[in-house]
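thread: overnight batch results

M.L. [08:02]
morning all. the overnight job finished for the chain we discussed friday. pasting input first so we're all looking at the same thing
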Amino acid sequence: MTSNNNCDISIAVTGSGGAGSITAGELLLSLAGKNGCFGMMRRSFGPQIRGGEAAALVRLGPQPIECMNDHFDLWLALDWQNADRFADEIPLHPGSLIIADPAAGETPEVVRHLGLEVLEVAMKALSKEVPLGRPNMIALGVLAHWLDFCADEAGKLIDHAFHDKGGEVVNDSRAAFTAGFTEPGIVEARSRRQVPTRCDPASVGERWDLSGNEGCGLGAIRGGLRFAAAYPITPASDLLEWLAPRLEKLGGSLLQAEDELASINMVIGASFGGVPSMTATSGPGLALMAEALGLAVAAEVPALVVNVQRGGPSTGIPTKSEQVDLDIALHGMHGDAPHLVLAALDHADCVLTTEWALRLAEALQTVAIVLTDQNLAQSRALIPRPQFVLPEIPARKTAEADDSYERYAITPDGVSPMAIPGTECSTYVADGLEHTESGKPSTAAADHALQLDKRQRKIDGFEYGEHWADVQGRGDIAILTWGSTASAAREAAGRLEEDGTKVRVIGLRLLMPASPDRLAAVLDGVEHVLVVEQSHGRQFYRYLRAYYDIEADVRVLARPGPLLIAPGEIVRELEEWS
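M.L. [08:03]
and the structure it wrote out:
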């Protein structure tokens, strides 16, 4: 009943907002980990503040998973409200199964026309037999039985998830789970259907259950973060919620500002005071921060911005994913404002990239923007414990008390000692005006040229090492991509290799400064390059055209969100090309 791999399964749990589909999906993912599986869960919401539609999109298997499959094998509907809004996001295949509550009414035409088997389970009625039972716990039991998962492990997870709500809620949730797990129709149907091989619980090693937003927060803390200021914005708010209590435990703090302009200026102020600082936002917020980020570049104050991309322009599609903030991240500041732009490639990479970005911002005394997207940031993955090996990066170069101190002194590497406020004999003015080496405002052409060269030199001259990109595979065909689409590209390459076609996948992590010599080296011998990105305007392709000379034949697979590019699409594109 699987779509491409007989050892994994893709499941969608949908319902109206508040029906508990996301909770069921998260518990199912955790339960899969306890039963030896790897997995990933995407959250899909409508744009409403309350209500609307919600879906947990889960893929499970015996090997690490970092993207959704091409199709879903099972769709469990707690209700059919707004099902038409999910149809495109839940592609099905002829062997897919629908599990639905008959009380929810007739299967909608958007699903019915496919002619799939529909298994009815009275989840709402079963839940009413338990005083505090809910249909989503019935659904969790149904899915756990279907996947042959251990019921005892599910009980432990329910205890942990609901213990704050009291013993009665925990006991009734467990009772509802059991009712779903033992529902006769499910037991009978499971016995006659071929379901993917169960993962081996004995193989469970140390795994992380991590969202992309949590990964960015952890990376920032590992990089030395002690202050964050931000204004809540979808889909970055989860990162801030995760950071707040953890920063406090480390002696730091997170402040909710009144808007994005205030938040970035608070970050610049805290960093000026010597504290590694960051904010998190999405496209509209990054647009508002542009002027202040220019100030940080000119005053050479370290600042980290994690930008979680969503559909645009303007308010766009706040709850859906798209890779469309590349242009503004690269070029959104006025004037020549050299800075760093990095992109995380997967859940574990969110940790590495954000830690690296903060350390680089501190060492180079500049702005670092880390780009993720809703797909990566708000999804969860069960992954092996990552092994992070970052090169040695110098800490922020600080100044000692010195009567001859010059904050913006011209140095060979472009980095000048930065005095912390209060350092004796080392006061200086840090503002957005062009300045002399001492910090005195200047309109002289010579001073402007010296400072422009200095700020560019420290960015271009730094040795970034092997982390500029993730390069996998060999062959005369290459997939060149960035951000979360790298995961789909890797899986596509794996499928092609199984059929005898060797493909190398290059996921760019360091976008600015560009690395043309390094890319030329890894493309040596490549005849065909497929550029893959999730945008309508081909922002990544235009970036490549601007900064790189690619001698191979190039084709572009680009599509806007919210529908993600699947591995099968990449495979078909390359097969048709060949």
